[in-house]
Amino acid sequence: PPIIHREDYRPPDWLVPDIALDFRLDPGKTLVSARLKVVRNGDHAEPLRLDGEGLKLIEVKRDGVALESGVWRLEDDRLVVPIDADEAEISTLVEIEPEKNSQLMGLYASGGILCTQCEAQGFRRITFFPDRPDVLSRYSVLMEADQASYPVLLANGDCIESGEGVEGRHWARWEDPWPKPCYLFALVAGDLAANRDSFVTMSGKTVDLAIWVREADIPKTGHAMAALKDSMAWDERVYGREYDLSQFNIVAVSDFNFGAMENKSLNIFNSRYILADAETATDMDFDAIAGVVAHEYFHNWSGNRVTCRDWFQLSLKEGFTVFRDQSFSADQGSAAVARIGDVRTLRAAQFPEDAGPLAHPVRPESYIEISNFYTATVYNKGAELIRMMHTILGEEGFRKGSDLYFERHDGEAATCEAFVQAMEDATGADLAQFRLWYAQSGTPKVTAKLAHDAGAARAVLTLEQTMPPTPGQSEKQPMAIPLKTALLGKESGTPLARERLVMLTEARQDVVFDDVAETPILSINRNFTAPVVMDAEKDPATLAFLSAHDDDPFARYEAMQQLMVETIIDAVSGRAADHAPVIEAVRKTLADADLDKAFVAEAVLLPSESFVGDQMLIVDPEAIHQAREALRRDLGSRLEADWRAAYAASSGNAFEYSPAAKALRRLRTVALGYIAASGADDAAKLAFGQFESADNMTDRQGALGVLANGGAPERVAALDIFYNRYRDEALVLDKWFTVQAFATRDDTAAAVEELAQHPDFTIENPNRLRALVGAFGANQRAFHLASGRGYAFLADYILKADAINPQTAARLLPPLGRWRRFDEGRGTMMRAELERILAAPGLSKDVYEQASKSLA
Ligand code: B3K
Ligand code: ZN
């Protein structure tokens, strides 16, 4: 398959200022007629080329006259039409089959609803069009459908007319006044009910809001609606951005390839990011819903009003919008806990990607299939880049930059470069070296050494940075790395030198701190200002000290994590692991009454097995599991009384969705987990009690998770009760699959194989596929079972899924690509599975790209 290169970007030959679409909707056979006003762009003699994929072409007209085939031609999948004049009207009529669309790209059917997904290149599966983000058009959309099956007809913009037709059909015409690229086009037809509300914007305009779901789900839409209104107010307050239409619609569907989609004024969501109530959704689900609702809403400016010139610029909208949704979420509760969550996600998903065969820059140089580049690097590392600019320029400078960016590029398809340029022009800052963050892949490693001269009352911090080689990039230049740094007194624990922003720009650099009389301890990369791996060579005593005294909560969390990781790695590497410092640090944190409980619950959690694995050259999944479990057991039994006290103190409250109540629930299940780890006789009974008496899903799922890891008879009972209670709640049933796929039991791989045969398992629904197969791939020990059965299982399901939905299949593949990091035996088996995948007939280019790059 062809490789697309960023360098090859050329402006479009033809522009399409206006498009009129006419849909005769039917799940079996939908007719789409499109009338495009096309205008020659620049001085050239190229014909008009329109992208198309899987379309049955019925007719082509030029300026109202039907053209003989022969005048137009199909080149691969493209429709080529010669045009002499500088302007013309080109019309096409095509037939598509929504019901047979299992890829969930283009127009498809989900549970009786007809809906669309166009980003990145789904619009070409609906009609012939220049399917690229730098062609912006005004849309007029006529939709016509059977009224009984599809009483609600929605598209972008405003509904300007509607009416009844013949034979029980009806129609609606929607017009969107804002020019947009075709990836933001959307329509929905279905039997839907609305939760309606309204929002008054800062200039006093009323916006009608509606969240459309199946009638029965209306009671689960309140949280999403509240989040939508909060997001609208937040974007006005923090970025000065107002909504620009009189309607904003959200639709939830159950079959969706990813989280949600920011189509102009008609966001379409995976139902898991809309539907929530205390009975069926955990606190994490509630938080994720608010985050995704905000994310999609924020795209109205960062993505829609200013869009991307080409798909290599994807992080322009995604990195910026993730940063915006992270900032929004941080404002909803504890900012420190939100930051811990952001960094955990980055380390779990992006660092491994950056260290493996699929590493790519935030602004990639090439791709085979763009769908494969909706990655943690483009999204989450991209957000870290924006955050670093925010840190460097300060709140006010950053806001000046974003104002200038929006003003300068409103209505345009822009580049990452344009964003950085606006930040520079608005503030006078020099971001020349900073731009390397967009171009160089791989995670920088920074080492820090602090020397103290007591006589001269001076401390010297020596920083060194290195960048590992990554695919296609063997040589790297030093990066501009912003590190918030402070010195704390070794005896007093108080700050000796005020926090300052150190800019590391050289390969090696000294930073001098004066007036430092007391022996200092280094606190660096506070609040994780830079997405780097930091090695400050701290001994356990220093880490323990920082975990109790650092005045930056993130740094405190970080010190604890590092202490835990090092303790586990000592055991894995056969050194005597001393659990005492970890136990003492955890005890202190639990006992510290001044700390936010939400913070405590995160700080006392052990790092995941995969995170420990990521720190090792060669991962030994079994040894990591044993070492981590041994530490868990010790923490559980040595601090059993403390866990029981924490458990009791956080119990007995009726459900409420507030930061304080969430914190107690989190701590409660964390404590339960440690009580179970201690081996206490009553642990399973305690867990089962929590499971049965819970008035909310957080407590119930938390207890189920604890039971699912163990061997008590309560385990089977709870799983059965859970299944029977929620068998008709698809999103909760997903949790039932996931909890078993994540289990730390010896037989997890076998259990997963069996669950794949369960009547409720299906690979056609992406949520269900990810709930079992995706979750299993993230369970390091179970997936990497020495027999290799985990690898074979995953490869089987990638191949099965690829025949139905290549985009979702390709997303399951990365765990197999990590073969270089495992022993010879495992590595060989992993490679063999990748080769088996590559040899399969009819492989999609999505999976081909991921598998071939993973072997290279
Ligand atoms: N922009 C969409 C993602 C589209 C993914 C296409 N493979 C959702 C989001 O990031 O908001
Ligand atoms: Zn996005």
Automatic annotation (TrEMBL):
Residues 442-536 form the Peptidase M1 alanyl aminopeptidase Ig-like fold domain. Pfam families: DUF3458 (PF11940), DUF3458_C (PF17432), Peptidase_M1 (PF01433), Peptidase_M1_N (PF17900). Residues 224-434 form the Peptidase M1 membrane alanine aminopeptidase domain. Residues 47-184 form the Aminopeptidase N-like N-terminal domain. It catalyses: Release of an N-terminal amino acid, Xaa-|-Yaa- from a peptide, amide or arylamide. Xaa is preferably Ala, but may be most amino acids including Pro (slow action). When a terminal hydrophobic residue is followed by a prolyl residue, the two may be released as an intact Xaa-Pro dipeptide. Residues 542-856 form the Peptidase M1 alanyl aminopeptidase C-terminal domain. GO terms for molecular function: alanyl aminopeptidase activity; metallopeptidase activity; zinc ion binding. Its cofactor is Zn(2+). GO terms for biological process: proteolysis. The keyword NADP does not apply. InterPro entries: Aminopeptidase_N-like_N, Aminopeptidase_N-like_N_sf, PepN_Ig-like_sf, Peptidase_M1, Peptidase_M1_dom, Peptidase_M1_pepN, Peptidase_M1_pepN_C, Peptidase_M1_pepN_C_sf. Keywords: Aminopeptidase, Hydrolase, Metal-binding, Metalloprotease, Protease, Zinc. It comes from the Bacteria. Aminopeptidase N is involved in the degradation of intracellular peptides generated by protein breakdown during normal growth as well as in response to nutrient starvation. PANTHER family: PUROMYCIN-SENSITIVE AMINOPEPTIDASE. This is Aminopeptidase N. The lineage of its organism: Bacteria, Pseudomonadati, Pseudomonadota, Alphaproteobacteria, Sphingomonadales.
